[in-house]
Specification:
The chain is α+β, with helices and mostly antiparallel strands. It has a single domain, classed as Porin. 18% of the residues lie in helices and 38% in strands. The chain has a 12-stranded antiparallel beta sheet, covered by helices on one side.
Length: 284
């Protein structure tokens, strides 16, 4: 396995401190604080360690404080309920004696039922698109330093946005399509793929709310942006080492906050997850 991806997998393999208490580490991905997707993925792993023979179907989380990349994060799990079909867990993430994040997650036994889904949007195949890391030096040089650092940081996932042809650089529709896939093959462990899907669900999502307001990368240097909450629903199993198409939209921005939604499709058109996030978007 690629060392960068292997490091992320090890990051999600939390240390068990005692029953219902786990500890995780952090990695610098070019952002000034702990990446929200990392905390989501680790909290989901912590909750899953307390559940047997059930799969997560939804989570609802709040980001309370920025995470410190140089300190471990302790996850405390409350086994709120175990019913015949569903289990509910509450997770608190703590650093320096204070909550930085909390989450509720629900798990369900596998059972058959009615099925339908939205059709996947039409998008060019990922092999025809450049990766987000393939950025010209000239363009990078025009961006604020912290944005350059984030965009040039190597990631354990391929990220290939579908560019909008003929779009006005001063403002685009608040919609985007992005293909994502792990940079190497992963073990056949559904729980790992679910945790990694939660991890990458925070990529590119909130930035969709900035698209109507100018060049997103240049604008980012003038914005204070932070995730406030995050919800996710897992409909069907999928692998994050296969190409996944993320369809994002932002129905509203107001009050220094933006709302963004996403749907995740396999390359074959199967809808495997949905997500929504509200974030702080404060113009400096």
């Amino acid at each position: 396995m690629d060392p960068l991806l292997a490091d992320l997998v090890s990051l999600l393999d939390l240390e068990t401190i005692e029953m219902n208490i786990f500890r995780g580490q952090s990695r610098d991905i070019g952002s000034p604080q702990v990446f929200g997707g990392q905390v989501l993925g680790q909290a989901l792993v912590a909750a899953g360690r307390t559940v047997e023979n059930r799969s997560v179907h939804s989570l609802h989380a709040y980001f309370l404080r920025p995470g410190d990349q140089n300190a471990p994060i302790v996850y405390e799990v409350d086994r709120a309920r175990d019913g015949r079909s569903f289990s509910n867990r509450r997770v608190i993430a703590i650093q320096h004696g204070r909550q930085i994040f909390n989450m509720a997650a629900s798990f369900q036994i596998r059972e058959p039922g009615l099925e339908h889904q939205f059709a996947a949007p039409v998008a060019p195949p990922p092999d025809d698109l450049p990766d987000i890391t393939e950025i010209s030096e000239e363009y990078l040089a025009s961006l604020p330093e912290k944005v350059r650092r984030f965009l040039s940081h190597r990631r354990p996932f391929h990220v290939r946005p579908v560019r909008t042809a003929g779009g006005d650089p001063r403002g685009l529709e608040p919609m985007r399509l992005v293909w994502m896939r792990a940079i190497d093959r992963l073990p056949d462990e559904p729980v790992l793929h679910t945790a990694l899907l939660a991890y990458i669900s925070d990529y590119e999502l909130l930035g969709t709310a900035t698209l109507p307001h100018g060049d997103a990368d240049r604008l980012r240097g003038r914005l204070q942006m932070a995730s406030l909450d995050h919800a996710m629903w897992f409909h069907r199993d999928c692998r994050v080492d296969d190409w996944l198409l993320f369809s994002f939209d932002s129905p509203s921005a107001s009050g220094a906050r933006g709302l963004a939604r996403g749907q995740v499709f396999t390359a074959g058109g199967m809808l495997c997850a949905s997500t929504a996030q509200e974030g702080l978007i404060r113009l400096r």
